[in-house]
Design goal:
- It is a single chain.
- The protein has one domain: MFS general substrate transporter like domains (Growth Hormone, Chain: A, Up-down Bundle), CATH 1.20.1250.20.
- About 75% of the residues lie in helices and about 0% in strands.
- It contains 17 helices and no strands.
- The longest helix has about 35 residues.
Length: about 375
């Protein structure tokens, strides 16, 4: 997952060196989302996540993504070759993220939330690493891109040591219409609505938090220290989500799936609404709130996936998870590209506030799911 933000993390360096337009800045992240959505939709319709060996699927996808990401070093960053390669990277990630969740779910024995939470926590930490690579690499944007590509090659080798759990079901027959149950089935629809509310906020924050911190720290810290502090702050903010994923997974299996998602979205929505009021203020306080936001904003992510795994037909779990992520990442295209316009129109003090609408809708959806009779299937009856 280090491939995901390998380009977004170096946007400040690319802007300084090549004077990238705001459109190109957003496109570097948006192209990954588009590729991921296309890949997920194709995989969902064909049922690949349920019909192929997940380890080989992940290894092949990781190698393709590593090659596309490494090719960024060979092209002019101001040309359309950059977003095209990012599109291919996103396409490859469709064979990693949802397939990994499917693989983890095969090992669940009354701890689905924790199993998927650990995986999403690892994915979250992987998504954060380019910000750390960028801080270590200094102004040379090529270093974090190269390290991210090498990380994906390592992942392709490591996944071969993973086993498939006993809960794996036989491959289902090919049925492209099966994916429609994700929306026709009411409990699945409510879980997906909660996920969509979560995704409205998540990737826009992840994609733009480094730029936000850089702008704020530039007003309060020295010119030499501000860029490094912003990169490390962005890494800490995103990486902290790994803690939230694992902790929420542990708690959700014991307290309830919908209860944890409602609490997490309430906290993250409040952070989105009010984080801008700290812009240009105390760097320590701003970073502390960002880390709280980073923990809460992704803590619920795995629980939406766990809910789908528990509510869906066991033979179609991979397809349902892939389609869920496809819908969510389609929505992220909107907020990622709206962020620069919100910054221009509202300033950094209020630019993140519109993201709070997503968690509000998500809270409503999960509250409705909590009242549904089939919610007893969640977390062993713990709603």
């Amino acid at each position: 997952m280090a491939l995901w933000f390998s380009a977004s993390a170096v946007v400040p360096s690319l802007v300084a060196q090549y004077d990238l337009s705001k459109f190109m800045q957003a496109t570097l992240t948006g192209a990954v989302q588009v590729g991921f959505v296309v890949g997920c939709l194709g995989s969902a319709v064909l049922g690949l996540a349920d019909r192929l060996d997940p380890r080989r699927f992940i290894a092949t996808a990781a190698l393709v993504g590593a090659g596309a990401n490494a090719s960024l070093l060979l092209v002019d960053p101001t040309t359309l070759a950059m977003p095209l390669l990012r599109f291919v990277t996103g396409l490859a990630m469709a064979g990693v993220y949802p397939v990994g969740m499917k693989l983890a779910s095969t090992w669940a024995r009354g701890d689905m939330g924790l199993m998927v939470g650990i995986l999403v926590g690892a994915l979250t930490f992987g998504s954060a690493t380019p910000h750390l690579f960028n801080a270590i690499g200094g102004v040379d944007w090529r270093i974090p891109v190269a390290i991210a590509s090498a990380s994906a090659v390592g992942a392709a080798a490591l996944i071969g040591f993973a086993g498939v759990g006993p809960a794996r079901t036989p491959a289902p027959r090919f049925d492209p219409r099966a994916v429609l149950s994700a929306w026709h089935d009411e409990p699945l629809r409510l879980a997906n609505l909660g996920y969509l509310g979560h995704m409205w906020e998540l990737y826009a924050m992840w994609a733009w938090i480094a730029v936000f911190l850089h702008a704020s720290f530039a007003l309060t810290l020295s010119a030499e220290f501000a860029p490094v502090a912003a990169k490390l702050g962005a890494f800490a903010t995103v990486a902290a989500g790994a803690i939230g994923c694992v902790a929420a997974g542990y708690l959700a299996d014991r307290v309830g799936r919908t209860a944890i998602t409602i609490v997490a979205m309430s906290i993250s929505g409040a952070c989105a609404a009010f984080i801008g009021l700290l812009y240009g203020g105390s760097p320590a306080l701003l970073l502390a709130v960002c880390i709280v936001w980073g923990i809460a904003i992704v803590a619920d992510s795995a629980q939406f996936s766990a809910s789908i795994a528990e509510l869906a037909d066991r033979s179609r779990v991979g397809t349902m998870l892939t389609f869920q992520t496809a819908m969510g990442f389609t929505l992220t295209l909107v907020t990622i590209h709206l962020m620069p316009h919100w910054v221009e129109a509202l300033g950094w003090r209020f630019a993140f506030a519109p993201l709070a609408f997503g968690p509000a809708i998500g809270v409503w959806a999960m509250a409705r799911l909590r009242q549904h009779p089939r919610a007893v299937a969640l977390a062993g009856g713990r709603r």
